[in-house]
Predict the 3D structure of the following.
Amino acid sequence: MAQIQKLDLVKFAPRNGEGFYDTCKKRIDAYFAEHKIDPHANASMVTKTVLILLMYLVPYAVMVSGVFNDNAFAFLATWIMMGLGMVGVGCSIMHDSNHGSYSNNKTLNKLLGKVIVLVGGYHVTWKIQHNILHHTYTNIEGLDHDIDAGVLLRFSPNSKWYSMHRFQFLYAWFLYGLLTLQWATIKDFRQIYNYHKLDLLKKEKKTLASALTEVAIYKVFYYAAIIIIPIFVMGAPWHLVLIGFVLMHFVAGLSLSAIFQLAHVMEDCTFPNPDDSRKMENNWAVHQLMTTANFSSKSVIMSWFIGGLNRQIEHHLFPHICHVHYKNIAPIVKQTAQEYNLPYHEQKTFVDALLVHTRMLLKLGRK
């Protein structure tokens, strides 16, 4: 399939008002109403927000303080901790905020969504790729840019095959580690130009000039804080700063890639194409069930740290609900899916999911 030219190329089948999604939504709305619960962030989410920000900011403060300038091991350890903090910030704070599910206050969502600058990213391009393209056209070749990894990786059976893909189950993990390093360097600029050509910047009320100006300002701020201050203000060894910078991004990139790839590039997930008239066989909600998977749902630590993204099914169906509620709405979603004889893909543990994803990379690497 050719790359997208306009977003109206694909149409999902309509809902009939009595199908899976409508029934599921009514039940979930009833759950929140009955228990008098706001579907946005609660007190525990606010507490988590503070703690996760500290997971990134405290190691950063220690690093720039210069206290470990003469201890290479301890100095690099602070960068590794910052890498883990980046994962928490991205999954638990920025993600909900940019979906508008953190708060019913749009200004607060917008403010917290911009913490992506802490990981070197740009909220506008992230929202276009993730909210508009990935959440709408999940696993559809040419439309979901999350499965478009260039020529080096093949995430869909509908993508072009190259002989090197036979070994992607081995080298993919190294490339995963480069994810956020791309964000911090070239990816945002490249996406701005691409999304401008596709008229997608307009959906975020941005022009090409305003987006380029804004992202340039964010990058200057980011590199000043992460490179310039440690080296030229605090006197940290430049080579350790550069090693630490790459190490931090590799930890974050590998972790974030693993989290998101385990949700869609799995053996049970489908990669449907539209028919000749550009129509999909299923409606959008059923499409999400067929293309998405959960993992490690019972892990309290995993659910806390990665913002409930181990329950991607619930997230894809109801992205407007804060992830702290996924645990309680998951049984409703699963039961409703079973009643309508629809799939509900899940792996019990993170390790199980990693193994399944690795097998999927191996399968996709075959011609």
